[in-house]
Amino acid sequence: MVQPLGYLKESPSQTAGPYVHIGCTPNFTGIEGVFEKDLGSGPLYNERTRGERITIRGRVIDGSGTPLKDALVEIWQADADGLYNSPSETRGKADPDFAGWGRCPADMETGEYVFETVKPGRVPFRDGRLMAPHITFWIVARGINIGLHTRMYFADEAEANAADPVLARIEHRVRVPTLIADREGDTYTFDIHLQGENETVFFDI
Amino acid sequence: MRSPQRALISLEGTKSEITGPVFGHNMLNEFDNDLIQNYARAGESPIGQRILVHGRVLDERGRGVAGALVEFWQANAGGRYRHKKETYLAALDPNFGGVGRTVTDEDGYYWFKTIKPGPYPWPNGVNDWRPAHIHFSVFGHGFAQRLITQMYFEGDPLIWICPIVKTIPDEEAIKRLIAPLDLNATIPMDMRAYKFDIVLRGRRSTMFDNRKEGN
């Protein structure tokens, strides 16, 4: 025998369940008066935030093509200059008027989620090459046992996308478009397919 | 219908994964971590077993994760959730909302007061019952540590026949989600206590870039 390494194991994940809204967006499900507003709701920017205002909308769709009406979507992104508002950000100070995190429950009738945010700047990969602008998505719901991480890229950043070191890692090139959101006006549409022909690429990060 | 069929693509942490949002203690209201009081009418309290749930949020080296936002939600003593889509015939408790949150202190410690939730039936198999449980949502320091899980109670016979619990294939891992009764932390003549530690995944430090398996 050798000495045990002694590292603790990560607590196992469990599904968020159908009533995730009680804990994460209580006002949305009619529990009012406990929290003033639901954490992460509303626009991610205010009038002083730097950067281009955009809207992101989409649905989380199951293997039969049906949108989930009980999903919870969170996003995490850099500011317009590519800096994260986090103590772990070592490259500079992010826009103090942009926290970079948002949370949106899917609409209980349509399954649509919406974020009003700013377009992020570019962030370096570990070797210093710039990644294309992207937003990290995290999706939980009933029937999803562990939160799913993915990234949204922007269709109008074709050149940056072509050089992106993370997208380059995807061997099956036909799957790359599942991470790229189309633009119409100021709105990007990003549908997330959990299963099937157009299954979105998910990451083990 | 909701599980991806293709393998996840591995990605070593970039700034996008090792950074994450931080929520200060100043976002909290006085009773955010007291579910006995935060929805109750003046002078009243919810019905059920009064309990204190406490523990630490830890990293894989056993160090406390300070400033971690912990959110929790649960059914009432009868197993009824306060949610628009919930139809179980057990009654709502007019003094119980079922939601709370807190931020860990400098040692990673957290606590909250609540009512022990009841088991409830769910439409899976024809006679499936969830064990008593409290849902937890935790933010560490990096978005890659984001975790949602469930806490179960020591000695509950429903734990070992629950299909959601059994999505975890390893019995030892299931045990890490079962909170023991903690008599040391009880408040005599007031409430019992359960202890529940949560371990977040490691923060792979850049010192060990050459070790792809992590620290």
From TrEMBL, chain A:
Keywords: Dioxygenase, Oxidoreductase. One of its GO terms (molecular function) is protocatechuate 3,4-dioxygenase activity. Its EC number is 1.13.11.3. The keyword Oxidoreductase applies. Transmembrane segments: none annotated. Residues 56-84 form the Intradiol ring-cleavage dioxygenases domain. Belongs to the intradiol ring-cleavage dioxygenase family. This is Protocatechuate 3,4-dioxygenase subunit alpha. The lineage of its organism: Bacteria, Pseudomonadati, Pseudomonadota, Alphaproteobacteria, Hyphomicrobiales.
